[in-house]
Amino acid sequence: xxxxxxxxxxxxxxxxxxxxxxxxxxxxxxxxxxxxxxxxxxxxxxxxxxxxxxxxxxxxxxxxxxxxxxxxxxxxxxxxxxxxxxxxxxxxxxxxxxxxxxxxxxxxxxxxxxxxxxxxxxxxxxxxxxxxxxxxxxxxxxxxxxxxxxxxxxxxxxxxxxxxxxxxxxxxxxxxxxxxxxxxxxxxxxxxxxxxxxxxxxxxxxxxxxxxxxxxxxxxxxxxxxxx
Length: 228
Prior knowledge:
Elements: H1 22-38, H2 45-52, H3 56-60, H4 66-89, H5 95-107, H6 111-115, H7 121-131, H8 133-136, H9 141-146, H10 151-167, H11 174-194, H12 207-222
Helix pairs in contact: 1-2, 1-7, 4-5, 4-7, 4-10, 5-10, 5-12, 10-11, 11-12
């Protein structure tokens, strides 16, 4: 199986690179489906082993626990998003257009994006929307950060903040705004389905377009020169 987008994932996250073996690929392919279906709380390596017809011990050779597997899957997702944003904006000179494309890339999973990836990105997006805070809002977050587990997320933040600085070099909070945009793409997607009173975004076929418009409006208010 060909890997079209080869994410730069910190090697310390895993014990053995899953992409380098058929079993490793089965582990990450099936874990995406199982975590999305069961939820992270009910997911475990015993169930994953049964799904791929292997043993728990074989999975532990790749990941020391299910939290590290979730960190790996999240890193894969952020690397894919960053790859798409960088590749789509590389030849664009207008930074406002760059930011528009970046917002679209954050919110959507396109056919082109999926065609360049070996994991099911709609499911991966659902996992990140539901579960990402379970690896960042913990007491282990600082130690995970020191180990470089969030490098992929930080690279995405940097790519977006660089675009913001192109729009307005004097803007004081480009990293904060970049992080907020990514958080908005996650939290409003989640709240529209689970906590609808906390967002104006409504579930429906145009939900992603609503989120795009909301994020663009946010940019227009903070960056006067940022237009749709």
